[in-house]
Amino acid sequence: MKKIGLLFGMEQSFPPAVVEEINSRDALVAAEFVQIGAVTLDELFEYDVILDRISQDVPYYRAMLKLAALNGVRVVNNPFWWSADDKFFNYALAQKVGIPVPNTALLPSKQHPPDTTSESFRNLIYPLNWQEIFDYVGFPAWMKPFDGGGWKHVYKVHTIDEFFEKYSETSNIVMTLQESIEFTEYYRCYCIGKKYVHIMPYEPRNPHHTRYDASFAPSPEMTRYLTELCIKICTMLGYDFNTIEFAVRDGIPYAIDYMNPAPDAERSSVRDDNFRWVVEKTATFLIELAHEGRAVPAGYTWSAMMNASKGTS
Ligand SMILES: Nc1ncnc2c1ncn2[C@@H]1O[C@H](COP(=O)(O)OP(=O)(O)O)[C@@H](O)[C@H]1O
Ligand SMILES: [Mg+2]
Q1: Which residues contact 251 (CB under 8 A, 6 or more apart)?
Q2: Cα–Cα distance between 35 and 19 in angstroms, integer?
Q3: CA–CA–CA angle 112, 89, 146 (5° rounding)
Q4: Is the CB of 64 under 6 A from ligand 1?
Q5: From the alpha carbon of 178, which atom of ligand 1 is closest?
Q6: Which protein residue's CA is at the shortest distance from atom 26 of ligand 1?
Q7: Cα–Cα distances in Å, from 254 out to 86, 101, 223, 251?
Q8: Which residues surround ligand 2, an ion (CB under 5 A)?
Q9: Do 134 and 173 belong to one domain?
Q10: CA-nearest residue, atom 13 of ligand 1
Q11: Does residue 11 lie in a domain region?
Q12: In what order do the strands lie in the sheet with 74-76?
């Protein structure tokens, strides 16, 4: 019997629905909520697969999941890459491979990080050449954390004065300043297992409860292109569960937000049909992984050492 564990926080509907879906499908695979206490180096873990929905908020779980991965548990999403990744790097990587992204600049934090002084910043040219940044990004622009989520500290700014006013509220958070894509269509897409894609028309300018009431829908060509981009982005970043947001201007979909390794999947926010899709495809993918079985993640420098030590034992 293979075992899949769900690790989650305040979510209400998605984790139990996935457990129920898996348990209704395949007699050789069972799912349950992860139970974990203190962890020692000898912990072997009883799960073949763990779906992680919460380690971004619980560092204890992130550390535990790295040990689980070392023991071959298939952790979705990869805890190592999730820890290393940030949105600014994502924009840079996407641009390098030819995916349309808005012009984006990385800004030093307004305030010094804890336990630093101006002496810690001897290498930083300050004041910055702000005009160069404004010319590159243009106005209106979005200022948002280089590594954040949930619309926290996201500001739309229209003028230089407004930029500096908002920037002064950002304390020691490292921000990006990004060209605003004044869009005619916007899509939020689930991508699971780097192959299952679900494109949801999404109107971020509406109040929260009506954001999935959009007045546009993707053409067949747009559907094909977005599907291709979602798979490319998730393959490149190594995420097995992610949402990718695109803002479409003049027919071009710009990738806006694609570092969402624990994306919102609550029934009340995504609505019944989207919820059904994400529950079913998550179950399908986790069952596929469970059947593939345990495997230590490849692609780390320590993976080669592990194989070498196996050979000599
Ligand atoms: N460059 C942009 N052009 C247009 N709208 C943007 C841009 N950046 C952010 N937004 C708007 O702000 C929202 C939140 O920004 P996003 O990058 O998705 O951050 P978060 O990870 O917090 O969701 C987006 O859903 C979108 O509506
Ligand atoms: Mg977003």
Answers
A1: none
A2: 14
A3: 40
A4: no
A5: 1
A6: 204
A7: 18, 5, 14, 10
A8: 257
A9: yes
A10: 151
A11: yes
A12: 29-33, 2-7, 49-52, 74-76
pLDDT of residue 122: 95
Cα dihedral sign, 201-237-276-11: negative
| Ligand 2 centroid – CA 245 distance (Å) | 7
Tell me the best of 243, 256, 269 to mutate to test the pocket of ligand 1, counting ligand atoms within 8 Å of each CB and taking the most.
256
Residue 289 one-letter amino acid? L
290 with 2: CB under 8 angstroms?
Answer: yes
CATH of residue 211's domain is 3.30.470.20
One-letter amino acid for residue 74 of the chain: R
State if residue 145 touches ligand 1 by the CB under 6 angstroms criterion. Answer: no
Q: Is 125 exposed, middle or buried (0-12, 13-18, 19+ CB in 10 A)?
A: exposed
Domain end: 126, 152, 179, which one? 179
Residues 192 and 254 in one domain: yes
pLDDT at 312 over 60: no
Report pLDDT digits (tens) over 191-216: 999 999 999 999 999 998 899 999 99
Query: Alpha helices of 97-254 — where are they, by DSSP H?
Result: 130-137, 160-167, 220-237
- Residue 23 falls inside a structural domain: yes
* 27-47 pLDDT tens trace: 899 999 999 999 999 998 999
Ligand 1 pocket member 144 (CB < 6 A): yes
Residue 134's nearest CA partner among 151, 115, 157 is 157
The yes-or-no verdict on residue 313 having pLDDT over 50 is no
The residue whose two tokens read 């799912």 is: 31
Q: Report how many domains make up the chain.
A: 3
- Structural domain span for residue 22: 2-84+291-307
Whether 143 and 176 have beta carbons less than 8 Å apart is answered as yes
Burial 16-45 (b: 16+ CB within 10 A, else e): ebbbebbeeeeeebebeebebeeeeeeeeb
Q: Which residues of 250-264 are buried (b: 16+ CB within 10 A; e: fewer)?
A: eeebbbbbbbbbbbe
